[in-house]
Amino acid sequence: MKLISPGQAAANTNDMSSEAGEELVRIGEMAKKYGVTLRTLRFYEDKGLLNPQRDGSTRLYTRRDRARLKLILLGRKVGFSLRDVKQMMDLYDPNGSNTKQLRLALDKSEKQLARLQKQRALIDDAISELSASMSTVRQMLIERSAPQASVAS
Amino acid sequence: MKLISPGQAAANTNDMSSEAGEELVRIGEMAKKYGVTLRTLRFYEDKGLLNPQRDGSTRLYTRRDRARLKLILLGRKVGFSLRDVKQMMDLYDPNGSNTKQLRLALDKSEKQLARLQKQRALIDDAISELSASMSTVRQMLIERSAPQASVAS
DNA sequence: CCGCTCGTTTACGTTTACGTCAATGCTATA
DNA sequence: TATAGCATTGACGTAAACGTAAACGAGCGG
Hints:
homodimer; 4% strand; mainly alpha; two-stranded antiparallel ribbon; 153 residues; 5 helices; Multidrug-efflux Transporter Regulator, Chain: A, Domain 2; DNA-binding; 2 domains
């Protein structure tokens, strides 16, 4: 059984125009806002990447959570694994200079950049080979459709 | 001229049904020749991509198998799934014009080329974003090393 | 009172291309 | 004969990032 929380349950219909300070958001809204699924948000929490408050069992995401999610999505976009993202985020200290965090991030970024460039090279290579194969195949198809090649003048 | 496997070759019972110059190769040699593992060759066979003869239980790869493997590796290099490769190979008919096979290959290739180009675009995008982030982080590190902190926005 | 929507947890499934044992067999050489 | 070396067939493990039920609760509108 849960105790009744002070100040009305946030399970209210999302008419929070009057409440301007906290801007707590539930999982559905959060998901829509950032284009991810509910499953994803819960998954990230399970992996320790997010830590929303709770009203009873309902997750409530703060401004902070939203900032973290943005970072996660950026990290994902540039190809970091969630593990890497977590490792970097875990070093964040609101009361420190975060030099260590920044250095780690920079270090990982350099490596990731190298990986990306390598991937790009591989893809370029693949594109070349594939294009070449396609030319060959096209040529073969042409020859199939014009079988009178040997005696033609 | 018969190639015997390096080192102490096991009994190469190539007396068995010796067709003219078949150049049968066992799995170890095959793997070395093409830079894949034994597991890979067995896996491909399990997936129906290769079909070596058997001498008892020992796999013997023919010229044909080697050609097929080359194709598989090319396909893999340009990003096809093994399923796609199989689908294309399964259409091969030594007695036909193989027009269907070639058309399918061309069709799949066009789609794969599109995928590759999209991937390249994504990677380029990721590289840009990552580079930008790195600049920011570097800047933050510089500010950390300077005692005069400016007021954030 | 019913059903709808939104929320919860737990837990197995998906995908791809193999890696990594494990247990066993065949053959030839020291 | 024992050992070395190569072969065989299972069969479970791996990685990433979730998807997909299943089974349930809470609140609201009608």
